[in-house]
């Protein structure tokens, strides 16, 4: 018999090496299996947080639009009020400057009685 001769101690060593190899594989598998749920939970949590951040970004953009529209609406009346002076405000300004009652009636389009009243009120204010 010129074949390969394997002794019992060699078979035991080979069996021991195979058992150690399978134990190492089992330990690696268990380590991976323990880590996967944590990784899965972290991934899910990260996705949830990313969704929440995206929602907050959309809400911020909507608030920016509402704020811009609100400030635009608030500015319009102020511009209109300052640019268009009412006849009474114009008459009061003229009375403070010492204008005549006839000039107030003609320029402001108010009645003679209203012009007299405004002139009397603001003449007293100017004098006193």
Can you describe this structure?
The protein is mostly helical. Among the domains are: 44-84; 85-128. Helices cover 86% and strands 0% of the residues. It has four helices and no strands. The protein has helices at 8-83, 87-96, 101-108, 112-127. Helix 2 (87-96) packs across helix 4 and helix 3 crosses helix 4 (112-127). The radius of gyration is 47 Å and the shape is rod-shaped. It starts with 7 loop residues before the first helix and ends with a helix. The chain crosses the membrane at residues 12-30. It comes from Chitiniphilus eburneus. It holds the Pfam family DUF2802. InterPro entries: DUF2802. Keywords: Membrane, Transmembrane, Transmembrane helix.
Question: What class would the helix/strand composition place it in?
Answer: mainly alpha
In whole angstroms, how far apart are the ends? 141 Å
Shape type: rod-shaped
Detail the poorly predicted runs: 78-82
State Rg: 47 Å
The helix tally amounts to 4
Number of strands: 0
**Order of H and E elements:** HHHH
Mean pLDDT across every amino acid position? 86
Percentage of residues in helical conformation: over 70%
Strand portion: under 5%
Largest sheet: none
